[in-house]
Amino acid sequence: MASKHILVVDDEIGIRELLRDILQDEGYQVQLAENAAAARAARLHERPDIVLLDIWMPDCDGITLLKEWANSSLLTMPVVMMSGHGTIDTAVEATRIGAFDFLEKPIALQKLLKTVSAALKHSEQQPKSEMNLTSLGKSPIVTALKDRLDKIAVGISPTPVLLIGPKGCGAELCARYLQDSGSPWLQLTDFNKLVDMPLDILESIRGGILYIPEIADLKKAEQKGLLLLIAKSEKYHVRVVCGTSENLPKLQAESLFDHNLFQALSAVSLRVPALEEHREDIPDLVVAIANLQLELAGLEYREFDVAALNGLRNANWPGDLAQLDAAIRNLIHTSLGEKITLDDVKRVLHQFDDPEVQVKTAEIKKPKPVQVEEIKTSAAVDLPFLDQPLREARDDFERIYFQHHMKDASNNMSKLADIAGLERTHLYRKLKQLGIKIK
């Protein structure tokens, strides 16, 4: 069996080398990082089996780095915090974020080896890495969603929850967020069991979560079975979480959805925002998804440049989070350059477009050659600023250009940025320079 890989992060060279020598003598592979920056780089290129992380470092403290990894879906290995002057509050904070344990310096040899061994056993029992609600973003709308889920989770009785949102919006991440660590999870696909054996389902996931991705897919008899299951779920301490992208009140009015089941589910319901409602989270989401895929597939680390991230943020995502996830995996596997660029993003986003339409669009966009006579004629009628100095003429032209396209784009800055081929930060600076007010 291959030896386990341990990353030791400490700004004191003596401690780093001492820990390396001890752990190598025990048969472990050890990598050293002298600060948070080196630790970030090491984690991006490879997932260690365990990290020994010092809290007090000059460039960035260990708690902050631990939070960064947690927020970027990179906290997929046990992290043992180390400190020469730690406090109980610090240890509690680190554990709350996701640290496995806390060691005080000077670290006793037996305590070190016992903690490392326990952390590695814990790592082996952990499920495979996966997206979580923390990865969904930090925008106000996502933060509010997490706060509401936290409020639901602390309830004494595991009430059923209805999650409403477009397909692929991340409803499963919300359902997983409500799951207690180590408790059972069942995503129900065989709806016949709701009719034939609803109580057997509850017995099999006692204390856990039953998740149904699309409640509107259930037939009338299955809806009745689910209603019975919900009525008995408290006894088994099972929480039923259902998702839907359908208009359930409309289905109920058309007698296609059971009235009593709708009442039971709508008592605690939340709307999961579509990706277009929190576009500011897309760059962080891209990095989280990419890091997760790199870890699972064992591929070399690939970075997205700024233009590529902006292109993904400004794109349309009718398939929501699921479509974004598929696009990121495609880009990682098929892009050829050292970095993933805007051209790579355009290639993947438009690969299913009709080739004939693409050719026609290219022909339309291709500028027609303009004769000198045409310029003179146009100048007399439409281009009065040709007699101005170049700088003034350029400013006047750009002012007319942006005002024209702002009207076409209905003052949508994302659309205007796409039309002009500019990054949004550059676009805002340009509009301010030209004295154009943004409505």
From TrEMBL:
Q: Which residues form the Sigma-54 factor interaction domain?
A: 135-333
What GO annotations for molecular function exist for this entry?
ATP binding; sequence-specific DNA binding
One Pfam family, short name please? AAA_lid_14
Checking PROSITE patterns in the record gives:
RESPONSE_REGULATORY, SIGMA54_INTERACT_4
The UniProt keywords, alphabetically, are:
ATP-binding, Nucleotide-binding, Phosphoprotein, Transcription, Transcription regulation, Two-component regulatory system
- Span of domain Response regulatory: 5-120
Residues with PTM 4-aspartylphosphate: 54
Q: Name one GO biological process term.
A: phosphorelay signal transduction system
Gene3D superfamilies the record matches: 1.10.8.60, 3.40.50.2300, Homeodomain-like, P-loop containing nucleotide triphosphate hydrolases
Signal sequence residues: none
Protein name according to UniProt: Two component, sigma54 specific, transcriptional regulator, Fis family
Species of origin: Methylotenera versatilis (strain 301)
